[in-house]
Target: Carbon monoxide dehydrogenase small chain
Amino acid sequence: MPQVKMTVNGKPASGEVEGRTLLVEFLRENLGLTGTHVGCDTSQCGACVVHVDGKAVKSCTMFAAEAEGAEVLTIEGVAAPDGTMDAVQQAFQEHHGLQCGFCTPGMVMSARALLAENPTPSEAEIRDYLEGNICRCTGYHNIVKAIMAASGQDVSTIAAE
Model:
């Protein structure tokens, strides 16, 4: 089996993978990083979003071998080494942007990508960007509110659903 090498959450990572091994499988099974979730196996839910070389990707649509030499960031690498949550994680907690938590890693990773591209997105832009992420619990209102809060915007302008 071929060997794949990449940097995951700032640390070198490698392992033997079959050509058909998905990045999400490599992260979860080879590296034990189970924060990246598999929700649908069809790239519809967004629970598996990670950053590869700074871009948000659904890791169930990418082979591990395609990440050879790449910088990969998973939800486990978002918080500071001392456990301090980043602004998006903190906003999700403060504004109740999660319920069961299954979609949360993918939502946080997508939100971070959005804010990197657009530091002050509108409510409509946030909803549009999250179109590929499914939450079966919250109805998105508090997720949108959390992302706006993480961007430093006034969340009182968001109408209740």
The domain at 3-77 is CATH 3.10.20.30 (Ubiquitin-like (UB roll)).
